[in-house]
Predict the structure.
Amino acid sequence: MSIAQEGGPPKVALIYDPKVRSIAYQVVLVAIILFLAYSAVRNAADNLARAKIASGFGFWNQTAGFDISQTLIEYSAQGGTYGRAFWVGLLNTLLVAAIGIVLATIVGFMVGIARLSRNWLIGRLAGGYVELIRNVPLLLQLLFWYNAVLKALPDLRDSWTVFGNVYLNNRGFFAPYPIFGEGIGLVAAAFVLGVAGAIAFRIWARRRQERTGEQAPVGLVALALIVGLPLIAFFIAGMPATLEYPEKGRFNIRGGLEILPEFVALLIGLVLYTGAFIAEVVRAGIMAVSKGQTEAAGALGLRAGQTLKLVVIPQAMRVIIPPLTNQYLNLTKNSSLAVFVGYPDLVQIFTGTVLNQTGQAVEVVMITMAVYLTISLVTSMAMNWYNARIALVER
Amino acid sequence: MKRAVTTLALAAAVAFAASAASAQSLNAIKSRGILNCGANGTLGGFGLPDAQGNWTGLDVDFCRALAAAIFNDPAKVKFVALTAKDRFTALQSGDVDVLARNTTWTSSRDTSLGLNFTAVNYYDGQGFLVRKALKVNSALELNDAAVCVQQGTTTELNLADYFRANKMKLKTVTFASADEAIKAYDSGRCDAFTTDASGLYAERLRLAKSDDHIVLPEIISKEPLGPSVRHGDDQWFDIVKWTHYAMLTAEELGVTKANVDEQMKSANPDVKRLLGTEGNYGEQLGLTKDWAYRIVKHVGNYGEVFEKNVGQGSPLKIARGVNALWTKGGLQYAPPIR
C-alpha cells in the first residue's frame, strides 16, 4: 500500500513506480537483445561446425595465389596473402573514393552555380544534366562509361601517343613516372616546412589585419613557400629523381604511370552521378541565403566577388554541409559497384575472389561491412567537425 | 510485461528453429514437390535458358535426371541461375539442393566449404581464346598479355600459376561474370580470354565474329566438373552420385531413351539390375525400383545427353575425348550396380 506523505511525491510500491518500471523494461530489453545476439553467434558457429565449413580468421595469412590488376602496395600472386589482398582492395577503394569526392565536389559546385545562372542556355544545360544523370541507375551509367571508354579508345598498335612517351589506348593511359632517389627526404622536409610556414604567415597576416586593417598577399607568399622551398631543395639535393618511361611490348605497355580504363570508367560514373546530386544540394544552399543579405552587402560597398566569398557562401555552407556528407558517403559506398566494370576494389577482391576461395562468407562479409562502416563513420565525423566549426554560433 | 514475454518467445523460436537445419534432403525435396537445382544461367551447352525460358545443357539434364528419379517427372526442377562467385554460398545456405554448375572438384572445396563432390560429369581443362590477328600459336607466347577472366573460379588461380611457372608476365582483368569478361575481351581490352575449354567453345559462338578467334592448343589445368551437395546427408549424396552412374551404366549397356521399354524385357542380368526388373537397388537408395528406368526414359543415357548438349547434336560440336566411356578409351567409368 502507498501512503502519501506531505511535502514529497506520493510513495508507491516499487512495481508501480514509473521510474523503476521504465528502467526495468529497458534492462529486460537489453538482456533480450544481448541474448539474441549471443544465440545468433552461437548458432552460426554451431551450424558452420556441423556443416564442416571452415571458420575463424586463419585464412588471413594464407597465400592468395591470384593476380590483381591494380596494386598500390607490393603484391604478387605467389607472395601475397589474403590479408595483403585485403589491403590492396581497401586502398583501391579509398583511392577511387577520395579522388571521386574531390572531383564530384568540383563538378557539383560548378553545375549547382551554373543552374542558378541568369544565362538561359547555361541554366538549362545544367538543369538537363542534373535531371538526366539523377534519373538513370548508376550501374547502367557505369556500364555505359566502361563500354564507351573502351570503344572510343584505339588498340595498342594504333595507340595515341605524345612524344612517344605518353600513350593512350584501350589498355589504359601510360605516362612517365618519377622514381625518387637518395636525398628526396630533403625535398619532403622542405615541403613540410613550406606548408607550416604558409600557415604561420596566414595567422600572422590575419592578426595584423585585425589590428591595423592592413592586408597582406597571403596567397602569393603561401605559393612561394609551398612550391618554391621544395623546388630549391630539389636542386640543392642534386635532382634526385629519374623518370621511368613506359615501354611498348608485344602485347602491353609496361612501366611508368599506368591508369586503367576500369578506374577511369568507375571514376567518371561516380563523379558525374554524385556531382548531379551535389549540384542540387549547392543550389538549395545558395537559394536559402536571403536576397536581403546580398543587397546589404552591396549597400556596405562590397564587390560581387567579395559578396559571394564573405557573405553568401559562408551562410550557404551551413545548409550545404549536412546533405553533402550524405553524398560523400553515397559515393564511397557506390564505389562497390566496381566489380561490374572490372576494377579491383575491396568488394571485388575480398568479398568476391577471397570469399569464393576460402568459402568463409560470414567472416569475410563481416570484415567488409566493418570496413565500410568505419570509412563512413570517419567521413561523417570529419564533416560533422567541419559543420560544427562553420555553424551559426548563437549567443 | 506481456510484450517482453512475446519477444522472449520469439527469440527462443528463432534460436531453436535455426539449429534444426539438417533435415533429410530427400524428404524435404519430396514434401516440397520440386528439386532446387543451382545451375549456370549463361553457359551454352551446360546451363542456359532459351528464349522461351526452357533450360538446356548437360548440367541441366543432370538435374532433370535427378527429378525423374525422385518424382518420375523431369519437369519438377526449379533452376536457380548462380554466378561462379555466389554458387557455394547458395548451396551452403540451402537455397539449392544440388549444385550442378560446371564446378571444379578441388581438395579445398571438398573439405573446407562444407560440401561434397559426388561424381565427375565432365572432364575439362582450362584453355585460352585469342584473336587470330595476334598470330599467337601457343599459350607460351602470351608473355605480358592482358587476360580477361571471370571471378571466383579455379581459373583465376590456374592463370596466375601458369604464367608464374613459365616465368611470364601477366595482366589480369577480373570480372564478376563470364558475360562481362567476354564482352571486355571482345572490345579489345584483353589479348586473351580464359576459362575451361568447353566454356571457350561456347563463348566463342557468342562473339561478334567467332571465326576471328581461335582456342590455343594448351590445356593448362585439370578441371573435373561435377555436381556437389552439402556435407552431412549421406543418403542424398548417394542418390546424386548414383544418378550419374546410372546414366553411364545405361550408355555402357546400350540402354537408350528410345529402346528402354524394350530393354525392360532384356535377359541380360546387368540390364535387369539397372532397370529394376531384378533386385531392389533403387529402394536401397531410398528411391523406387525403377529409378534408373525413369532417368533413361525421361532424360536419356550419358552419351545421349552429352551429344545433345555439347556434342555433335549441338552447335558446340565437342568430341567425346576423355569423356568417352572407359570401354572406348575415355575416363567415364561407373562402379557396378549390384
Notes: Chain A has a mean pLDDT of 87. The first strand of chain A starts at residue 160 and ends at 162. Strands of chain A lie at 160-162, 166-169, 172-175, 177-180, 241-244, 247-248, 253-254, 257-259.
